[in-house]
TrEMBL record:
InterPro entries: NAD(P)-bd_dom_sf, Sc_DH/Rdtase_CS, SDR_fam. The keyword Coiled coil applies. Residues 91-118 form a coiled coil. Keywords: Coiled coil, Oxidoreductase. Gene3D superfamilies: NAD(P)-binding Rossmann-like Domain. Signal peptide: none annotated. One of its GO terms (molecular function) is oxidoreductase activity. Belongs to the short-chain dehydrogenases/reductases (SDR) family. The keyword ATP-binding does not apply. This is Retinol dehydrogenase 13.
Length: 327
């Protein structure tokens, strides 16, 4: 399926035996992504920030929804696990659990994301937007990578945004202590996502340049979506910001997508045979899209890789199958 993704992505083949991890899968396009993978037969690990009872209700809702609409369908499995991407401890605990319990991980979809009106700092000392949208996913990917290298073919799908085009990396102030703005923080985090997707692809292929590793990476813009998080930010903003955001939303509505349409490019990158041999590229509307100029900087991509490893404490990280990661 190509083109504008004006409808939901049709999964043509069964994916029984596939294990997929989806972060932020309790709502929005993450929930739709988890549901579609489950319908196609995958074992889906729903990584949710909510407490287990609330997340289990979401999973049960998906099961009932699919049963009602496709009563004869052979489905996969939904497994709910707690994950707080703003906490390195939570990420490590989650990854250790999966590395111990799962035989393989074929698909990792780093979907969770937030937009915060005010600068907030986590207990690890990171700015909340940066760690939730980018750094937490980077750490999770590194911790699960050995398992994925042993589960090939495998794909890592990073949900970015067209907002990366207006972002820049504040190398002397990545936590934006000096210069925080809601949209600036969001744009920087999404630029980091696109940069690291390219750099990881380069390292995966470069270290195994004969046949490659069998693990491919993708970043994407899902489209303009009426997400709960952004809606909440509009409600909580000051009166002046609320006027601006509501005014902009008038022009965004005709361009916005349903959650099913928003999940289409994620599913396309995770499953479509046409991109099975591509890696490190950026996608929009189920097709490859040119990324912003600043996202194509090899120097910045390598610098971000090194800085990110330092920030999460992975000082001796190597891409190698079955390599035990310390940090």
């Amino acid at each position: 399926m190509g083109g504008r993704c004006s409808r939901h992505y049709e999964i043509e083949d069964r994916i029984d035996g596939t294990t997929a991890v989806v972060t932020g899968s309790s709502s929005g396009i993450g929930r739709v992504t988890a549901k579609e993978l489950y319908k196609a037969g995958a074992r889906v690990i729903m990584a949710c920030i909510e407490e287990s009872s609330a997340a289990e209700r979401v999973a049960e809702g998906i099961r009932k929804e699919v049963e009602a609409s496709h009563p004869q369908l052979k489905v996969g499995a939904l497994i709910v696990k707690k994950l707080d991407l703003s906490s390195l401890e939570s990420i490590r605990k989650f990854a250790d659990d999966l590395n111990e319990s799962e035989e393989k991980i074929n698909i990792l979809i780093n979907n969770a994301g937030i937009l915060t009106r005010e600068r907030r700092v986590t207990k690890d000392g990171f700015e909340l937007t940066y760690v939730t949208n980018y750094l937490g996913h980077f750490y999770l990917t590194c911790l699960l990578l050995p398992k994925m290298l042993g589960s090939t073919p495998a794909r890592i799908v990073n949900v970015a945004s067209i907002a990366h085009a207006s972002g820049r990396m504040h190398w002397d102030d990545l936590t934006l202590e000096k210069n925080f703005s809601m949209f600036g923080a969001y744009a920087q985090s999404k630029l980091a996502v696109v940069l690291i997707t390219r750099e990881l692809a380069s390292r995966l292929e470069g270290m195994f340049n004969v046949l490659g590793t069998g693990v491919k990476t993708y970043s994407l813009h899902p489209g303009i979506l009426p997400t709960t998080n952004i809606s909440n930010q509009i409600k909580e903003s000051s009166r002046s910001w609320r006027y601006v955001l509501n005014f902009l939303s008038i022009f965004m509505i005709p361009l916005s997508k349903t959650q099913e349409q928003g999940a289409a490019t994620t599913l396309f990158c995770a499953l479509d045979a046409s991109v099975a041999e591509e890696s490190g590229f950026y996608y929009k509307d189920c097709a490859r899209e040119e990324m912003a100029l600043q996202a194509r900087s090899e120097r910045d991509a390598k610098k971000l890789w090194d800085e990110s490893l330092k920030m999460v404490g992975l000082h001796d990280f190597h891409i190698k199958k079955d390599h035990k990661i310390n940090g």
